[in-house]
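Methods: example folding runs. The two proteins below were folded one after another, and each record is reproduced exactly as written to the output file, sequence line first and structure-token line second.
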Amino acid sequence: MSRRDQIKMTDTEIKVFLEAGRDLQVASINADGTPHLVTMWFVVRDGEVAFWTYAKSQKVVNLQRDPRLTVLVATGNEYEDLRGVSIAGSAEIIDDPDEVLAYGLQIFEKYWGGAEDELVRAGVQAQALKRVVLLVKADAVVTWDHSKLAGAY
């Protein structure tokens, strides 16, 4: 078995890893061809990675022109702890206000807890008016979990 196959995550491991993940690295393509790389907070819904951002942000401008992107969630401080999921694909831009709010509430809940309080919900609603959701449509997924090597290099 190749080393690549040894460290590959299963579908279940990918799901658990992404759902527990905190920071999503998002790479889109600037008009001049250079990468635009930012860190976003995200959620997984129906098996797809999604994040929200301001509708006029550079990443949205880039993805409207060219929907290709790559996203990455990675963890680990030592080589034997390195784990990650990289997804290459395209972005679907969701601008329906009800959907944007629903994703915004899900993101808020993941990072800050529930949004049952009326003031909190109103704050998320106010943000949603200026935002869109970017849904990652995967073409290719690459994973690694170096802990599967049990210390062997």
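Second run, written to the same file directly after the first:
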Amino acid sequence: MTLTMVVTKTDDGFTAEVPTLRGCESWAHDEATVIDKTLDLAAFYLKLDESNFAMDKIRRTGNKTFYKIIFNKK
């Protein structure tokens, strides 16, 4: 299965969200931290271990970067 994560650069840091998981969003000062926090949250919502996730950068548009989260839910 795959989900999309959207990371947005803002004036005071970065926000990240997984739009298909309601409430799965976070904020941090740097991009790596916001991605880690959002992956932790997605793993919690999906009741999976974060080690089951793989990520791939899809594209960058303006101040937004799109990632694909790939996982196998068994």
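Comment on the second run: Strands lie at 2-10, 13-17, 25-28, 54-61, 64-70.
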